[in-house]
Write a structure and sequence with these properties.
elongated, 7 helices, single chain, about 75% helix, mainly alpha
């Protein structure tokens, strides 16, 4: 197994474990003992996407699940995902999904 593949695998595992607490590429790179730039380059080469995009995808996946299945309010979902600012979470969600969390939640009912 080559080093780039191994780093990618470790990064994906970390994202799955820590997406609620860690939001930046720098934080993950630090845990892996490499620079954010190197992590971004490796992920881009291995997957064809950016490390930040993978982090955001994981957060959005969980946000969608929580909004559909948990019964949490949008505020509770935001807090559960590590966002103290609900309006920031809502803007972040809308950027990736195309609708606000409340619109998404209403569609899901």
């Amino acid at each position: 197994m080559n080093r780039q593949y191994q780093l990618t695998y470790q990064f994906k595992q970390l994202v799955d474990e820590k997406y609620k607490d860690l939001k930046s590429v720098q934080e993950y790179a630090s845990l892996l003992g490499i620079t954010a730039k190197h992590l971004t380059e490796v992920i881009k080469e291995e997957i064809g996407d950016t490390a930040l995009h993978l982090i955001h995808e994981r957060i959005i996946l969980e946000a969608q699940y929580l909004l559909k299945h948990s019964g949490f309010s949008i505020k509770e979902c935001a807090y559960e995902l590590g966002y103290n600012d609900v309006s920031y979470f809502s803007r972040f969600f809308k950027t990736y999904v195309g609708v606000t969390p409340s619109q998404f939640k209403c569609k899901s009912i």
